[in-house]
Amino acid sequence: MGFSNQLLNGKTIMVTGAGKGIGRACALLAAQCGAYVIAVARTESDLLQLQKDSTELSGTIETWSEDVTKASFHQRLKGLSELHGLINNVGTNRVAKMTEQADDDVDAVLDLNIKSLYRCAKAALIPMQKSGGSIVNMSSQMGFVGSPGRTLYCASKHGVEGLSKAMAVELAADNIRVNTVAPTFVLTPMTEPMFENPQFKKFVFDMIPMQKLASTEDVANACVFLLSDLSAMVTGTCIKVDGGWTAR
Ligand SMILES: NC(=O)c1ccc[n+]([C@@H]2O[C@H](COP(=O)([O-])OP(=O)(O)OC[C@H]3O[C@@H](n4cnc5c(N)ncnc54)[C@H](OP(=O)(O)O)[C@@H]3O)[C@@H](O)[C@H]2O)c1
Fold first, then answer.
1. With 202 labelled, which of 63, 113, 171, 229 sits at a CA distance of 20 to 30 A?
2. To which CATH superfamily is domain 12-237 assigned?
3. Binding-site residues, ligand 1, Cβ < 6 A
């Protein structure tokens, strides 16, 4: 076994938030490596486009137009006959100084980034029980450091790091591995508006020793490695795709 377009042959992999950005790149790469991918997002037009763009790939993409916060989605996920991998990718950010942060934002960010991620992982354990699996929780470099205007987001991603380590310890006996991927800034619909501010752009490039943003493919590569048997002995850890931001 090695790096090849058959790396994920025979595996069923769910990617949440697969309509845009990082999740879309993960779904396409997993299908390129032979997986049967279940791509989840709410916007049907994004999912249709994803399916169109995957027709030449060796794997298959099935789409689920679902909201990952809903109990009905968790029930549907529990009903799968088998699942070998989950990229728990949905997440959000509400950038503001603590003194200006709306109280609703505290719930919105923690509910989606922690509670919903936890519930999706919990539901995935049922179809993973049969043959074990690999869960990749999408973190961020902000799961390791602080940054102005991002205290709430940092709290949520530090939570994802802690949760993932604890899950790895608890689930190892069930042959379920749990890791995170922690990207630096990636241009996606979530971050594009941020980079319209030249001061912010300069701040980001000054903070990244490699002086470039990560691409969605950079992040997908790390995720696919963690889903595959190439990482069979890797659990409870993080792959930082951050160009050195957190190494300073
Ligand atoms: N972009 C970055 O710079 C960066 C850096 C570090 C970490 N991250 C993390 O990477 C993850 C993905 O970020 P991104 O920038 O790719 O995000 P994005 O561009 O905003 O895309 C998010 C995807 O998730 C879907 N989604 C959102 N809420 C959903 C829900 N409740 N149920 C189902 N699908 C939902 C969206 O589609 P619908 O709205 O149609 O459902 C969309 O397809 C997040 O966890 C983020 O914190 C991003």
1. 113
2. NAD(P)-binding Rossmann-like Domain (3.40.50.720)
3. 16-17, 19-23, 40-43, 46, 67-69, 89-91, 138, 140, 183, 185-186, 188-191
